Amino acid sequence: MGLTVNTIKTEVVCQWSANIPSTPPTFTAAGEQLSVVPSFRYLGSILSEDNAIDNEVQNRIKQASAAFGRLRRRVFQNKNLHLRTKVCVYQAICITTLLYSCEAWVTYSRHIRALEQFHIRCLQRILGITWRDRVPHSEVLSKTNCRSIEATITQHQLRWLGHVVRMPSNRLPRRVLYGQLHHGRRSAGGQKKRYKDQLKTALKKCKIRPEALEDVAAD
Hints:
Helix content is 49%, strand content 7%. The protein has 219 residues and is mainly alpha-helical. The strands form 3 sheets. The chain has a two-stranded parallel ribbon with strand order 1-4. The chain is globular and about 60 Å long.
């Protein structure tokens, strides 16, 4: 059986390691030219040509906000439900939607700030308070027994890292994690964060030495 490509529905995103050229390359299938777009959705995530997650983070916030809105009157503003029940529903649905695929994210402070703002705003609505009440964010998290978004992302990424480390050596995710480029070098000046840099930061936050990672993951 051969693969039939629907050229109308097929789009191409070119991800560049350097500056994006003004004239995009052309791709053809079955004699027809495919559309080259700056981003598209793949398996629920948004892939962009600049390899950034700005669009993905905004999309996650939008999806989680819609999920929160659908449950707001029935659950989060329901006075007959206990606070713990509301928080459990929020974490199971809204947080899961918000942080979908966060295991592969490379975050900057602007991403964490946007996600934390949404997180705190939702918890404030569950508690029935506003910013005018001047309740510190730490107290909001304490009252709801929730972690910050930054801590939650770190937990998810380390959990996924341990899962990959425990894979057999022939599995593709493990080979990519431990792989090194034989050719090429990074340009001088400020560099984009790599996924490897993201994991090193997560390990440092949890005081895990990189050389002890495999022993810790095996426990």
